[in-house]
Amino acid sequence: MSDKQHSIIGAGVPRIDGPDKLAGRANYAADNLPADMAYGYGVFSTIAKGKVARIKVDEAKRMPGVIDIFHHGHFPSLYRTPSSFAQGNKVEETRLPFEDERVYYEGQFVALVVADSFENARAAARHVEVEYASESAVANLAQGLDDNGTQAGSGNHSRGDASGAFEDAAASIDVTYHTPVETHNPMEMHASVAYWDAQGNLTIYDASQGVVVERNALSKIFAIAPERITVHAPYIGSGFGSKLWTWPHAVATAAVAREVGRPVQLVVPRQQMFTTTGHRPETRQRMRLATDANGRLVSLRHESINTTSFTDQYVETCGSVTKSLYSCPNLTVSHATTQVNRGTPTSMRAPGAAPGLFALESAIDEMALAAGVDPVQFRLDNYAERDESQDLDFSSNHIVEATNRAAETFGWADRNPRIGSMREGREIIGYGMAACNWEALKRPCDARVSLRADGTAFASCATQDIGTGTYTIVAQAVSDVTGIPIDRITVKLGDSSYPDGPISGGSWATATTLPAIAGAARNALDEMKRYATGDNGVFAGASSDELDVVDGGLRNAGGKQASFAEVLDAARYGSADGEAHTEAADSQYSYRSFGAHFVEVRWDPGISHLRVSRVVSAIDVGRVINETTARNQVEGAVVMGIGMGLFEATEYDERNGRPVNNDYAEYVVPVHADQPEIDVILLDYPDLAFNEYGARGIGEIGITGLAAAIGNAVHHATGKRIRELPITLDKLM
Ligand code: MOS
Questions:
Q1: Atom of ligand 1 nearest to the CA of 242
Q2: Complete domains list, the chain, with CATH
Q3: Which residue intervals define the domain Aldehyde oxidase/xanthine dehydrogenase a/b hammerhead in the entry (predicted)?
Q4: How does strand 331-339 pair with strand 297-308?
């Protein structure tokens, strides 16, 4: 690829789906209204543990518009999916809806009303009478440890002799951090619209970050071939991980649509998005760190316990980054779970790393202070040249430059390290920083590209655009390879009938999808050249390798040029098509992204007001494909990190396990008034060992470390070390 062709890669191309979204033409799951559609509304458990003893539906059934009411005594029998990530049929809650009378969490589906309107379904749902045999619920992590102790987790690691080295060290700390449940609150609520045709084929519109995996999971659950299921998710009002895997409401909607013989729509109420569609679990993390007399880490132990449900084990791998971020010969990382009466947790933006780096990067700050070293210098002193956990080189690691550039832009050199010493008017200013880190993954992918006789191009892949810009970067890749301008490229995603693409998660959609798209575009060009050089071709008799691709056409060495439209017209073909399959990344290197956050907080003790006033983040994610959407991802992640640091926590009543702040009013997320100045520095070093674009993905890294940087700044301002998120005002007074 020439430099000229590469100019669109990296450019801040505006989102190509933007106009449709702004004009209301973008259809989200619940916008689909097939003819004769009925509406579902759930009845949700009001206890967190026990059984449905009796369920009375007679009165509700007689209410206006009610078609049927489903519950564990009246529901089709389904099959469990093996829930295998490798097989691509994973779900997070493996229990089938209405499988039995057991209740495992408050807000679990216990009945589902289907009626002719949303209002009628909801009204009838309120008249379904459920009698429970309630048992004492396990309401939080501490109660879980008392009730069932811990179960061993996964992702553990050990090297050297961490406890021996700890005993002999010059300085050490032993501290425990706690992070609460956080609930995903995308603007678009979970919703499903499902219908079956006369041949028994299922179509479902679902708010999904993974249409292929959902198709495969539903194929297991309904025991029909995957080819007979189509999952559509052309637009998603974000998901943050809660829409990665299929949840009970989607299964239930598909099942009841078959029973009533009509399309059924079900929207999950915001309250149940706090119960039945996953959450980031509560964690307790014990950190033991020790240094030698020179401030070098000699021992690091990260022991994490997270809450999981009684139906499934979800491990929050808090130590995933700890294994490789710093050089340390003696290190152990362990993960365990404890069961509580909550729904099954799931990935939330940077699962593992987000709570894990709160603990690690706060502890590193504490260790630096204990060792008497500036926190930036401490990190640079303990820089890991290679991935010591896998004994592999990093493919590309610019964390030192990221740290130094962010420090300089932020003005770290002006920091007076004495606590509370930096003041402006009534406010005390705190400076804090933390590293950020995320793995880079690339999964197998298929894609298709057609170059059409009207001069347009069409690209398709069964991945999704969850608002991050995937449509746009796919168009950029097609334009890059073919020279066709962006406005003549149509990109189709979010449909499981397209070639299999990745989930929109793990920050791997870009690195996974673009090489497959580029490969398909090149294969389409090869077909174009065969047409051009064939019997009726514009360049009949020439050989394909004599032809260059120039500006959406072909040119020979003599300077004769023909557009793709002219080539196809002459050869009498409607399009030149290409498909490609690309493989997962190899394991030659440790592929990771790196960065550093620098945060300024302002604490006004007179009125007990804390705010984040300035953030500088330098991020090393390989090549940036789209300057605008990449910057948006980091800015959005920083905002979400401020939420994690200062506001977000789902509170459960310790007496009964019920989430109490289960709405937008009381589950506090940052609003515009909370936004600081955010300065994002994108390093842009292509990681060509990882894929041909050198891109590692950017969705998650920005939230990692941010809460720790806030906590470290709060400590600098106030002298208080808050080890339990969120850092609310009561903890500072
Ligand atoms: Mo992300 S938590 O992989 O949607």
A1: 4
A2: 5-26+442-582 (3.30.365.10), 32-135+187-237+243-274 (3.90.1170.50), 283-440+588-731 (3.30.365.10)
A3: 23-136
A4: parallel
